[in-house]
Design goal:
There is one protein chain. With 252 residues, this protein is mostly helical. It is built from twelve helices and two strands. Helix 7 crosses helix 8. It is extended. The model has no long low-confidence stretch (mean pLDDT 79).
Amino acid sequence: LVIYRRDALADRRARLWARFYCFKVPVSVVHNAKGYLLAAVLLGMLALDPVLRCLGHAPVLTQHCEAGDAVQRAYTVPSMVAVLLLYLFVSDLCVFSNRIAAIVLMFIRLTTHMALFLICFAVVLLAFATAAAALKIDEPAWESVWTCAVSMIDIFMGTTQEEELGAVNQADGPALKILVTVFYFVTGVYLLNLLVAQLVGAYSMTFEDMMGFARLKRGAKVVEALGLTSYARWSAFVRALDLDKPVSFIEG
């Protein structure tokens, strides 16, 4: 946090701003977004730490006391997020291999297409779940918008329960059957194939450039690491190179 604060203040003095949605923030804040998020999660873990909650309630260090047990479940959520962010930081080590870095960059670039697919799927799911709830089916799996959405997700994923299929087969009239069939066609056939076509097209467009992007990513990481190096350490490295001494080019 001290390093991030120093970089943010330096960018502010140099008037280096970046646009984050509708906000104007220093450039380093955007570049170090993962670090800020991890710091926030770690502060949340510190605030919910069961060991700290038990300091005044137990003679020894323990996480099992009345105050600690009350926050055990809440403490696991930021712990899960912190572990995922840790592996996200570890993924930066892929810069040591251009091939692995290229695959990671390709994954990041294709994430936008996956996000568009999820948005379209959510809109279609909401529309069909609302329509199914309007049919007033007398079954627990189809009685509300939420339960209808869960049932349709199960149908899309192929994990349908017997009660959900039984309600579809026993419903009065063919309305629910037609609705479920159209939903599966729109999502499982049209949207899913559209996603595959988008991913294939985007991959073919950026395949030739991904090695260059990987080298640029490596250069950015090197520059970022140099910014964290102290002046004394850098000076010692430069002196160790002996750049002021002439080099003999005579063979042998």
